[in-house]
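Example for tutorial group B:
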Protein backbone atom coordinates (compact mmCIF):
# COMPACT_ATOMS: atom_id res chain seq x y z
CA UNK A 1 0.00 0.00 0.00
CA UNK A 2 1.27 3.43 -0.96
CA UNK A 3 2.64 5.52 1.91
CA UNK A 4 0.30 8.38 1.05
CA UNK A 5 -2.69 6.06 1.32
CA UNK A 6 -1.44 4.68 4.63
CA UNK A 7 -1.31 8.22 5.98
CA UNK A 8 -4.84 9.05 4.80
CA UNK A 9 -6.35 5.86 6.20
CA UNK A 10 -4.51 6.04 9.51
CA UNK A 11 -5.76 9.59 10.02
CA UNK A 12 -9.26 8.98 8.76
CA UNK A 13 -9.81 6.15 11.24
CA UNK A 14 -7.30 7.30 13.91
CA UNK A 15 -5.56 3.93 13.81
CA UNK A 16 -3.57 3.67 17.02
CA UNK A 17 -1.51 0.63 16.05
CA UNK A 18 2.00 1.63 14.87
CA UNK A 19 3.47 0.72 11.52
CA UNK A 20 4.35 -1.76 10.19
CA UNK A 21 1.98 -3.79 12.40
CA UNK A 22 -0.98 -1.62 11.42
CA UNK A 23 -0.75 -2.51 7.72
CA UNK A 24 -3.31 -5.37 7.81
CA UNK A 25 -5.86 -3.11 9.55
CA UNK A 26 -5.19 -0.34 7.05
CA UNK A 27 -5.61 -2.72 4.10
CA UNK A 28 -8.90 -3.96 5.49
CA UNK A 29 -10.16 -0.40 5.86
CA UNK A 30 -9.15 0.63 2.35
CA UNK A 31 -10.62 -2.57 0.87
CA UNK A 32 -13.95 -1.81 2.52
CA UNK A 33 -13.92 1.71 1.06
CA UNK A 34 -12.89 0.80 -2.49
CA UNK A 35 -15.85 0.98 -4.88
CA UNK A 36 -16.55 -1.79 -7.36
CA UNK A 37 -16.82 0.80 -10.10
CA UNK A 38 -13.47 2.32 -11.17
CA UNK A 39 -11.35 1.06 -8.25
CA UNK A 40 -8.18 2.20 -10.02
CA UNK A 41 -9.39 5.79 -10.12
CA UNK A 42 -10.25 5.58 -6.42
CA UNK A 43 -6.75 4.29 -5.59
CA UNK A 44 -5.15 7.11 -7.60
CA UNK A 45 -7.40 9.67 -5.94
CA UNK A 46 -6.37 8.42 -2.48
CA UNK A 47 -2.70 8.64 -3.40
CA UNK A 48 -3.19 12.16 -4.75
CA UNK A 49 -5.08 13.13 -1.60
CA UNK A 50 -2.18 12.01 0.57
CA UNK A 51 0.39 13.70 -1.64
CA UNK A 52 -1.31 17.08 -1.94
CA UNK A 53 -3.71 17.59 0.99
CA UNK A 54 -3.18 14.97 3.70
CA UNK A 55 0.54 15.72 3.82
CA UNK A 56 2.91 14.58 6.59
CA UNK A 57 3.24 18.09 8.01
CA UNK A 58 0.57 20.81 8.09
CA UNK A 59 -2.14 18.91 6.22
CA UNK A 60 -4.73 21.10 4.49
CA UNK A 61 -7.64 19.59 6.40
CA UNK A 62 -10.04 22.37 5.42
CA UNK A 63 -9.78 21.22 1.79
CA UNK A 64 -10.11 17.49 2.49
CA UNK A 65 -13.29 15.77 1.26
CA UNK A 66 -13.19 13.55 4.36
CA UNK A 67 -12.81 16.33 6.93
CA UNK A 68 -16.33 15.84 8.32
CA UNK A 69 -15.69 12.18 9.16
CA UNK A 70 -11.95 12.16 9.89
CA UNK A 71 -11.42 10.87 13.42
CA UNK A 72 -7.93 12.33 13.81
CA UNK A 73 -9.17 15.77 12.79
CA UNK A 74 -12.04 15.44 15.26
CA UNK A 75 -9.48 15.03 18.02
CA UNK A 76 -7.37 17.81 16.53
CA UNK A 77 -4.25 15.65 16.11
CA UNK A 78 -3.93 14.57 12.44
CA UNK A 79 -0.13 14.94 12.46
CA UNK A 80 0.07 12.27 15.16
CA UNK A 81 -0.77 9.65 12.53
CA UNK A 82 0.42 7.29 11.21
CA UNK A 83 2.09 5.99 14.34
CA UNK A 84 5.51 4.43 13.99
CA UNK A 85 7.00 1.77 16.22
CA UNK A 86 9.47 3.12 18.75
CA UNK A 87 13.01 2.25 17.78
CA UNK A 88 14.70 -0.07 20.22
CA UNK A 89 17.70 1.42 21.92
CA UNK A 90 20.93 -0.22 20.91
CA UNK A 91 22.57 -2.28 23.65
CA UNK A 92 25.78 -0.85 25.09
CA UNK A 93 28.83 -3.13 25.28
CA UNK A 94 31.93 -2.40 27.33
CA UNK A 95 35.57 -3.27 26.90
CA UNK A 96 39.11 -1.92 27.15
CA UNK A 97 41.82 -1.03 24.63
CA UNK A 98 45.54 -0.97 25.38
CA UNK A 99 47.84 1.39 23.48
CA UNK A 100 51.48 0.42 23.99
CA UNK A 101 54.25 2.50 22.44
CA UNK A 102 57.92 1.59 22.57
CA UNK A 103 60.76 4.05 23.11
CA UNK A 104 61.41 4.18 19.35
CA UNK A 105 57.89 5.29 18.48
CA UNK A 106 56.38 1.97 17.47
CA UNK A 107 52.84 0.93 18.37
CA UNK A 108 51.86 -2.60 19.41
CA UNK A 109 49.20 -3.93 17.06
CA UNK A 110 47.62 -7.25 16.30
CA UNK A 111 45.38 -8.72 13.62
CA UNK A 112 41.83 -9.73 14.42
CA UNK A 113 40.56 -13.20 13.46
CA UNK A 114 39.35 -13.46 9.87
CA UNK A 115 35.81 -14.33 10.94
CA UNK A 116 33.49 -12.21 13.01
CA UNK A 117 33.15 -8.48 13.58
CA UNK A 118 35.98 -6.44 12.00
CA UNK A 119 37.39 -9.71 10.68
CA UNK A 120 40.98 -9.57 9.49
CA UNK A 121 41.46 -5.93 10.45
CA UNK A 122 44.19 -4.47 12.64
CA UNK A 123 43.68 -3.40 16.24
CA UNK A 124 45.46 -2.46 19.41
CA UNK A 125 45.09 -5.20 22.04
CA UNK A 126 41.57 -5.16 23.47
CA UNK A 127 39.51 -7.29 25.78
CA UNK A 128 37.10 -9.91 24.48
CA UNK A 129 34.04 -7.74 23.86
CA UNK A 130 31.48 -8.83 21.28
CA UNK A 131 28.16 -7.54 20.00
CA UNK A 132 26.48 -9.77 22.59
CA UNK A 133 28.74 -9.54 25.64
CA UNK A 134 31.00 -7.14 27.51
CA UNK A 135 34.73 -7.61 27.80
CA UNK A 136 36.85 -6.81 30.81
CA UNK A 137 37.21 -3.08 31.38
CA UNK A 138 40.13 -2.65 33.80
CA UNK A 139 43.88 -2.41 33.30
CA UNK A 140 44.29 -5.80 34.96
CA UNK A 141 43.24 -7.21 31.57
CA UNK A 142 46.23 -5.62 29.82
CA UNK A 143 48.31 -7.81 27.50
CA UNK A 144 51.32 -7.48 29.82
CA UNK A 145 52.14 -5.97 33.19
CA UNK A 146 53.33 -2.35 33.02
CA UNK A 147 52.54 1.11 34.29
CA UNK A 148 49.36 1.58 32.30
CA UNK A 149 47.62 4.95 32.53
CA UNK A 150 43.95 5.61 31.86
CA UNK A 151 43.23 7.91 28.89
CA UNK A 152 39.46 8.11 29.06
CA UNK A 153 36.76 6.32 27.12
CA UNK A 154 35.89 6.22 23.44
CA UNK A 155 32.48 5.37 22.01
CA UNK A 156 31.68 3.84 18.66
CA UNK A 157 28.25 2.93 17.29
CA UNK A 158 27.99 -0.24 15.23
CA UNK A 159 24.85 -1.28 13.39
CA UNK A 160 23.43 -3.35 16.25
CA UNK A 161 25.17 -2.04 19.36
CA UNK A 162 27.19 0.76 20.91
CA UNK A 163 30.71 0.02 22.12
CA UNK A 164 32.47 1.92 24.90
CA UNK A 165 36.14 1.22 25.34
CA UNK A 166 38.20 2.37 28.28
CA UNK A 167 41.60 3.33 26.85
CA UNK A 168 44.94 2.72 28.60
CA UNK A 169 48.39 3.82 27.47
CA UNK A 170 51.95 2.87 28.35
CA UNK A 171 55.43 3.51 26.97
CA UNK A 172 57.80 0.59 27.26
CA UNK A 173 61.11 -0.64 25.96
CA UNK A 174 60.80 -2.82 22.86
CA UNK A 175 59.80 -6.36 23.68
CA UNK A 176 59.19 -9.43 21.59
CA UNK A 177 55.79 -8.78 20.06
CA UNK A 178 55.22 -12.49 19.59
CA UNK A 179 54.95 -12.87 23.33
CA UNK A 180 51.79 -10.75 23.26
CA UNK A 181 50.55 -12.04 19.90
CA UNK A 182 51.15 -8.87 17.91
CA UNK A 183 53.60 -6.78 15.94
CA UNK A 184 55.18 -3.33 16.23
CA UNK A 185 54.32 -0.67 13.64
CA UNK A 186 55.67 2.90 13.38
CA UNK A 187 53.27 5.47 14.76
CA UNK A 188 54.26 7.64 11.77
CA UNK A 189 52.83 5.07 9.32
CA UNK A 190 49.46 4.12 10.79
CA UNK A 191 47.60 5.11 7.63
CA UNK A 192 49.14 2.03 6.07
CA UNK A 193 47.41 -0.24 8.58
CA UNK A 194 43.87 -1.63 8.22
CA UNK A 195 42.63 0.06 11.37
CA UNK A 196 38.85 0.32 11.83
CA UNK A 197 37.44 3.61 13.05
CA UNK A 198 36.93 2.43 16.62
CA UNK A 199 40.64 1.56 16.89
CA UNK A 200 41.66 4.89 15.43
CA UNK A 201 39.56 6.53 18.12
CA UNK A 202 41.28 4.49 20.83
CA UNK A 203 44.76 5.30 19.50
CA UNK A 204 43.92 9.00 19.16
CA UNK A 205 42.70 9.07 22.77
CA UNK A 206 46.10 7.76 23.90
CA UNK A 207 48.27 9.50 21.29
CA UNK A 208 46.46 12.67 20.12
CA UNK A 209 49.03 13.37 17.39
CA UNK A 210 49.14 9.82 15.99
CA UNK A 211 47.22 10.36 12.80
CA UNK A 212 48.35 13.90 12.10
CA UNK A 213 51.90 12.53 12.38
CA UNK A 214 51.19 9.59 10.09
CA UNK A 215 49.83 11.94 7.41
CA UNK A 216 52.72 14.31 7.51
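The residue assignment follows.
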Amino acid sequence: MDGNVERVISRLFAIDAPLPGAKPQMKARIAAMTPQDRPGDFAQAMMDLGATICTPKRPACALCPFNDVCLSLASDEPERFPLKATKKEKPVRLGAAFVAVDTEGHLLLRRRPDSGLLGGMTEVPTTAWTSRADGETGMEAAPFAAGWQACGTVTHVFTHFELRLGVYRVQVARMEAGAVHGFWAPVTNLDGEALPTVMKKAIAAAIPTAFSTSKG
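Helices lie at 3-12, 23-33, 39-52, 71-74, 197-206, 210-215. Compare this with the pattern of hydrophobic and polar residues in the output above.
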